[in-house]
Amino acid sequence: MTTIIDEILKVLPDGKISDAVFEAANIVLYTKDSDYFLDNQGSIKKAVDVVKKRIELRSDPSITQNQDEAEPTIRKILPEEAGVGNIIFDAQRSQVIIEAEKPGLAIGKQGSNLREIRKQTLWVPIVKRTPAIKSQLTEDIRSVLYKNSDYRRKFLNKVGHRIYDGWMREKKHEWVRLTVLGSGRQVGRSCMFLQTPESRILLDCGVNVADDQEPYPFLEAPEFKINELDAVIISHAHLDHCGFVPYLFKFGYRGPVYCTLPTRDVMALLTLDYVKIARGEGKDPIYTSEEVREMVKHTVTIGYEEVTDITPDVRMTFYNAGHTLGSAITHLHIGNGLHNFVYTADMKYGKTMLLDPAWTNFPRVETLMIEATYGGRENVLPSRKECEDEFAKLIEDAINRGGKVLIPVLGTGRAQEVILIVESLARSGKLPQIPVYLDGMVWDVTAIHTAYPEFLNSQVRRLIFHKDHNPFISPIFKRVGSSKERRQIIEEGGPCVFIATSGMLVGGPSVEYLKALANGSKNQMIFVAYQGEGSLGRRIQRGEREIQMSGGPQPEMLHITMQINTMEGFTGHSGRKQLMNYVNNINPKPKKVIVNHGEVSRCLDLASSIHKQFRIETVAPRNLEALRLK
C-alpha cells in the first residue's frame, strides 16, 4: 500500500532525504545534504501541494554543528540588545530554542539572523520571549520534555502513523455520535465522547471539585474503552475540564492530549495542586505526580487557527474562547466534509482586561455545543464599568473601616483579571496604596501568563513588553510564600487585600484566610468566580453563616460576621445576553445547538430560548445520553 511518505518522496530529488518521520500530524524530513537544507529550490513546497499537509525540512542531527561550538556562534550572530538568555538544544530534532527579551531583534529583519544561524550551524532556530516572571513550572515541563526527547520522538511518530496510515483508505458508511459523560445539565466534570467509524475522541475530561458524591465523569459507559481511545482534546486548564486526564494515564492511556501551550502548563500545575490538596486533607489522591508527568509527556500543543489532523477522519482547529489564558473553542471537521462540530467549552463573548472575545467565524458549522453556566433568563450580568466601580467601592469601604478583603479566585483566569483590575484602580488613584497579597497558585499562574503574551489581548501584551509598565509585577503585589508568612500577615493587622485560591473555598489558602477573617464585621469577602453546587462558597453565598469546618484535628464551628458580596460581572463566562448574541453572530449558522455545562434550569432555559428566537433545533442532554450528529 502506498503511504503518504512514499507520495512525498516521489516528488523530491533522489537521495536527498535521510529520514522521514511524523511529529503527530506534521511530517518532518531530514537531510544530510547541507546545501539542500539551506535551499531546497521549492521542492518541499511542491510536495506540500501534492499531499496538502504540513512538511518541514531539517538537517540530519549528524551534520549539525557541535553544541559547544554552536552556542557561541549563535550568541555572536545575535545582537546584544536582543537580551539573549537561555539557549536550549533539542539534539534529536536538530532544533535550538533561543530565549530573548526582544524576540524581534533576535529574529532580525525579515528573519536575517535566523537564516544566518541555519547557515553557520545547520540547526533550526526557534526564538521565544524570555518571561517577565520566571516560571519554575514551565522550566520543569521543558525539562521533562527534553529528558524524554527520544521517547517523545517515537510517540509523536506513532501518533502520525495512526493519523496517516489509513489516509488513502476508501471510506465506508460514515456516521458521527456524541455521548455526554459529564457536564450534562450540570457544571463540573466536563467530558464528551465523540465516535466515528475511525475515531474515538474525548473532548475534555474534568472533575467536579464541589461534589464529593459524584465527582468524576462516567467513563464506565459501555461505549468507552480506554484501550480504543485515539485522542483527548482539552479546551482549557480548569479542573472541571482537565482534572481527570492524569487518571487516564494511570489506567494505561498513552495517546495524545491536544491543547494550547498555556493550557499544558497550567493543567500540569492545577493537577499537581489537586494531588497536594487531597493529601493535605488526609485523602488518597486518585493519581500521583507520576501520572501528571506522563500526561505532560503526551501533550501535543496547537496554536490558535492552526489546522491539524488528529485521526484519519478528524481534523481539528483551535480558536480563542476568551475564557482564560489559552482557552480554546474546538472546531472538528469530520470525514471528508461529512460534519463540522464546534465545541465552545467555557467561553466569554466580550472583551475583558485580559483577553479578546470568543471567536465566531468558522469555515463550516453543522452542530454547535455551547455552555450555559450563566444561561438562565435571570443571568443578566452588569457592565464591566459598573462592576469595577462597585468593586472599588467595596474594597475602599472595608479599608476605611480598618478591615481586610478576601477575594477567593480560580488560580487561572479570574485571578489575573482581578490583578489587572486592582492594579488599574490603584494606578488611577481609585484605590488607596495598600498591600495586595497573592497566595496559592496565583503567582505561578501569573508567571505563565507573562510567558505566553501572544495569547493575551494587544493592550496587555504591550504593557508586558515594557518592564516599567508590566501590571503583573507592580510593587503593590506581594507574594505569600508559606503558611507561616500567611499567619504573620494576618496577625500583624492593617488593611490589605488577599487574592487567594481556591475560588470555591474547597481547599487552598482562601479557606485559611476565611477562618482567620470570618469573625470580623470590618472584613469583606468578594466572590468573583462561579460557586459550584455543594461548594462551601455556594453555601455562604446562599446565606449560611454557621459553618462546621473539618480538616483539623477536630471539627470547629465557624461564625461568619464578615461582609459577603458577589461580583458576577467579573466572570470568565458569558452571561445570558452574550450567549444569545454568540448564537446570533456565529458564522455560518449551525443547524443544531447542544447546550451543556449549566444547572438544569439554565440549560433548559437557554436551549428553549435559542430554539424560539433562531428556529434552530436544540437539545440539552443529560449525562450518559448519546446523540447521533450525522
Task: Characterise the protein shown here.
The chain has 630 residues and is an alpha/beta fold. It has 4 domains: 4-60, GMP Synthetase, Chain A, domain 3; 64-130, K homology (KH) domain (GMP Synthetase, Chain A, domain 3, 2-Layer Sandwich), CATH 3.30.300.20; 176-377 and 573-628, Ribonuclease Z/Hydroxyacylglutathione hydrolase-like (Metallo-beta-lactamase, Chain A); 384-570, Rossmann fold, CATH 3.40.50.10890. Helices cover 34% and strands 21% of the residues. The chain has 21 helices and 28 strands. It has a 7-stranded mixed sheet. A 7-stranded mixed sheet has the order 13-14-15-16-17-26-27. Strand 15 (328-334) and strand 16 form a beta hairpin.
Question: Which helices and strands, and how do they pair?
Answer:
Blueprint lengths: L3 H8 L7 E5 L2 E6 L2 H5 L4 H9 L3 E5 L7 H11 L6 E7 L4 E6 L2 H5 L4 H10 L2 E6 L6 H12 L1 H16 L12 E6 L8 E5 L4 E4 L27 E3 L5 H4 L2 H6 L6 E3 L1 H20 L8 H9 L1 E3 L5 E5 L2 E7 L7 E7 L4 E5 L23 E5 L12 H17 L3 E5 L5 H14 L8 E4 L2 H10 L6 H8 L11 E3 L3 H10 L3 E5 L8 H9 L6 E4 L8 H6 L4 E4 L6 E4 L3 E4 L9 H10 L6 E5 L3 H15 L2 E3 L6 E3 L2
Number of domains: 4
End-to-end Cα distance, whole Å, is 30 Å
CATH architecture of the largest domain: 4-Layer Sandwich
Q: Tell me roughly what share of residues is in helical segments.
A: 25-40%
